[in-house]
Amino acid sequence: MRNVIVTGCPRADLADVATLAEFGVATVHEALGRSGYLGPAIRPLDQGSRIGGTAVTVLYWPGDNLMIHAAVEQCQPGDILVATSSSPCSDGIVGELVATALQHRGVRGLVTTGGVRDVADLRAMNFPVFSAAISAQGTVKGAAGAVNVPISINGQVIAPGDAIVADDDGVVVVPRASVQAVSAAAARRAESENEARAAFRAGELSLDRSSLRGVLAQLGVQYVDYEADQAST
Amino acid sequence: MRNVIVTGCPRADLADVATLAEFGVATVHEALGRSGYLGPAIRPLDQGSRIGGTAVTVLYWPGDNLMIHAAVEQCQPGDILVATSSSPCSDGIVGELVATALQHRGVRGLVTTGGVRDVADLRAMNFPVFSAAISAQGTVKGAAGAVNVPISINGQVIAPGDAIVADDDGVVVVPRASVQAVSAAAARRAESENEARAAFRAGELSLDRSSLRGVLAQLGVQYVDYEADQAST
Amino acid sequence: MRNVIVTGCPRADLADVATLAEFGVATVHEALGRSGYLGPAIRPLDQGSRIGGTAVTVLYWPGDNLMIHAAVEQCQPGDILVATSSSPCSDGIVGELVATALQHRGVRGLVTTGGVRDVADLRAMNFPVFSAAISAQGTVKGAAGAVNVPISINGQVIAPGDAIVADDDGVVVVPRASVQAVSAAAARRAESENEARAAFRAGELSLDRSSLRGVLAQLGVQYVDYEADQAST
Amino acid sequence: MRNVIVTGCPRADLADVATLAEFGVATVHEALGRSGYLGPAIRPLDQGSRIGGTAVTVLYWPGDNLMIHAAVEQCQPGDILVATSSSPCSDGIVGELVATALQHRGVRGLVTTGGVRDVADLRAMNFPVFSAAISAQGTVKGAAGAVNVPISINGQVIAPGDAIVADDDGVVVVPRASVQAVSAAAARRAESENEARAAFRAGELSLDRSSLRGVLAQLGVQYVDYEADQAST
Amino acid sequence: MRNVIVTGCPRADLADVATLAEFGVATVHEALGRSGYLGPAIRPLDQGSRIGGTAVTVLYWPGDNLMIHAAVEQCQPGDILVATSSSPCSDGIVGELVATALQHRGVRGLVTTGGVRDVADLRAMNFPVFSAAISAQGTVKGAAGAVNVPISINGQVIAPGDAIVADDDGVVVVPRASVQAVSAAAARRAESENEARAAFRAGELSLDRSSLRGVLAQLGVQYVDYEADQAST
Amino acid sequence: MRNVIVTGCPRADLADVATLAEFGVATVHEALGRSGYLGPAIRPLDQGSRIGGTAVTVLYWPGDNLMIHAAVEQCQPGDILVATSSSPCSDGIVGELVATALQHRGVRGLVTTGGVRDVADLRAMNFPVFSAAISAQGTVKGAAGAVNVPISINGQVIAPGDAIVADDDGVVVVPRASVQAVSAAAARRAESENEARAAFRAGELSLDRSSLRGVLAQLGVQYVDYEADQAST
Q1: Rounded mean pLDDT, F126-131
Q2: pTM given for the model
Q3: Which sign, positive or negative, has the C-alpha torsion F37, F41, F47, F49?
Q4: Which of residues 59-118 of B touch C (CB under 8 A)?
Q5: Domains in chain B, start-ordered, CATH in brackets?
């Protein structure tokens, strides 16, 4: 672990990120080629929110939120703090006070593999959090870490300045350089989904629409009648 | 694993299932002799819903929702899709599009040991889901499985056509042939609970009502006074 | 395990507990020296509640809620039932009927490492629950345990009569003899947080306010410019 | 849960089971159509053993091994005890004494989702155990359950008299009526594996032997040169 | 958490502990009334060892082994280091160097809810370890904790000077003041087990020996014949 | 996920890797600045082995080992196959046949977040495996993935050609470009450890050797006498 705080990181364009975020986490993940998803363990504190922004990354030591404090200074409007620890730890690294400081700097939310506390306050102040835990367990401020280095969550690498989209489905990361291309792919996918939705509402089956009957046949999946099957087994 | 899609399965009578469902999951589970519960890992997407219906079962490959698509065609009004994978996998096997197709066919909800995505949409369209995960992770459509074969979740076997009841306490399965008998037992239990509730509100203790003082004595559980106990230890 | 039911336990003063509870779980945990927290696995059934009371402790056998029934009799107004099992078990040890009995005795809520059921009813009757599981799985009444002996959850010891505070952040225990002192410490902390909050809203950084820049320097954390860093690696 | 002890269950033929067991767990699982595997959580106490036998099934209450004691009487030479609890529990349900009783009756081993204890003794007496836990935690003998009813572990149903094969890869169940057919399929698979092994030792690739290059191409998997790829990204 | 290092703690008598340890973990746990077991998550690094000694307790911060270093000085011949963290952490808090220092002071082994590393060396130097994890992840030395205060693992309190017994079944703690009484109870149990073992080897059933047939009958467990049962269901 | 197979990847120098591997996983992890460790979930199949080699990386779909087969062709003597899935899956992706093919190509071992099977055979053929699971569950060969793209395990990125060291402590990755520098740092650390070992054997305390008494004092950790402490609390 390099103990550094990287300053002056370029960010994805916020207008591009806003366009991307409208498609939501599941569609963006698909548009990325089924990639970038930070996994089902990271859940929203509040139902119904959707945020998009640019990543300020934090790698912190378990039980220690010193680097969170260091990261606040690196944040600018439109950022989302994305924090993970060098080994798994559910302690509450952000509470209402740090969230106040983050909100003051224009930070749009927090994503973490760790925990948060003062969650009633966090909900009341409309500070979106996507975390793996809610924990009142406090931390100390005595161990080194890093800010704005690439980190990895659920097998996905998050570099500083990458686009983050988070909603009720979880969190997805899109590399800074790919935001526009992924938005375009997401738009195509959304269009295709609109057509599928209309078809399904009209009673068409995905088996037919996606030509899956042939796949089933090729795999040797057989249709059998219940009565006949019961008789034979 | 037999790679089959069984057609023409008989279902429990929907009127009988409706009667059963009114008792709720916990009471039905008790009426079955403390059986049929699909476990605490399967949680409702939305608080406050209760559904009853008949099972269409799916056994799918991890990371692959082909058999979900195949199952849609086998569904009829009153069914509940119950899906599990051949090895554990939290990927999102159903999203808003498949739910649209299921809803079009009159399916009342989804129960799965896997995951779902587009959950904001699923909530908005009032499609009840009871799942072990929420995950934006997408799946492919290339591996065989089965529809309407008996499957097993949490040690309980679910056969096609069995009655399913799901609410905030989770999900319970009742064998098709037992629905009326279990409803009758549930009614007796509900009656007994009504009497107990009234008694408890009047201050009676379950220790007395259920004759548990004798059980405590038989097990050698002793009453000791705090002060005396502190003095002796 | 001593199979005893201890009667006549002294309790923390309820007025003192009420004062303590106002500070909330996270602040009380800090005021105790970052101690007493029962861990992130115990979650509230309902969002937004906060309770304070005095512990009636239960140690029960897995799959068996006999001692819960025995504990009801030991409860008095202002108590909170705190129950754990001799080995981990998620079964539903309390449902709406037992909650009715507890509520009749003035019990303010339930804290358990196990499960509860009838949760729609529990929510409707405003009986606060903080549990590790929701499970319809029923229990028997045939195994011994203990009431009002010290128990331990998440490495924290809970003695009968100790103060319990529970809210959206989880549950904290404060030894009976320390309630007033912890309240005083919590008040000091809350005051300090008020000042910090105002400062953060005015743009001050915790790096400066808490003199953390020196800590970073001492730990060898270096600031590097993004462009320079990219060039060198 | 039906509280019954079923007597006089037919068993798979032990000579057939012996033939089956020689193929080992992985091959038998494949020969069954990738089915019957009791999952990676059940591990052998000792490395290097392989057993085959006929199932005597037990469904026991968490924390209670009464039904294990009841099951001993139902065992005959060649049996393997297969035990699971009505809700998950790691307590030690079998120790050296029960194992002595089982060994006296000719039982070949134990398979359980629970725990065992006295494991140094169990190893010393060469009693094969495949369990999900090692736990010294003791149990009581006061709750009902069932012996020789169908149970389910990891989604697989085990009926009394079914064939069980267990080795370092875990445990697989084969329905009593299918033992000979599965043995035949396993033999064909083993033969095919022998040929593949020889081919691989001679340097042939499975890509060619199993015609997987076409699958890769059909899926759109592309070969790219490292240098060219680095240049383009 | 009180940040203290308690010196001069009295220990259980080592001769008494040696007598106790001969009975092994499972028997001692039973002799304590099925109590004191530190749970199935703590496993021996090496198979076949059994140690007894007196506890030096450590409460350390996650990711930080400063207090382990502080504890070494408090150890004396016959001690066993028992260490847990204020919140769960699997990092390797002890490696071969610290083990060398512990061994020099006559420490008989380590019990921890955390992790150890250099395990090949630890095995080679015959330093017994019972831990919840093996992890090469290193720690820092910058956070406070406590030595020789009561700690709690798996719901069991370990006070400094308590007797610790550890073998292949895990770890059990016996309060310092109870060692002789528990040894006596363990001796009685061992005697009873000797008799039971002989009886089981002679073919007696525990159903008869422990009068369990009446329990089964009282619980309503019925014996049914397989053929009759198949016909009726 | 890019569905590519990258060919012609440069590797770390095998002689350099051999030098590095001699230091073992824990020392290499420390020399990297406490980084590169793949976590405690990945365990060796056999005790006592230590391997070093160069990474061929695989990203495979859950339940599908097609890309493992594709990867075999990319392997050359000195390589270690490092495989992870796009979402967590414990299925057995490598058995004795694939291991035979890998061994034929000079591959030194397998590291995976998934499972392996035929483990008795794998042990017999001395093919080192470090995996998160042992599972007989079979896979299919129908889903795309990638070979020799950067993958991430436990927050650590593994690029093709990076150095891998694995022993009883787990697995560590060292970037290809850093192998010599890390070896040098590891040598310095090993030298320092040799001195510390000698000092500890002579009775010096790490408290003194590492100047930790001042750290304890600065953190406010106090020494208290047991008798005095008991009297005051």
Answers
A1: 98
A2: 0.98
A3: negative
A4: none
A5: 4-186 (3.50.30.40)
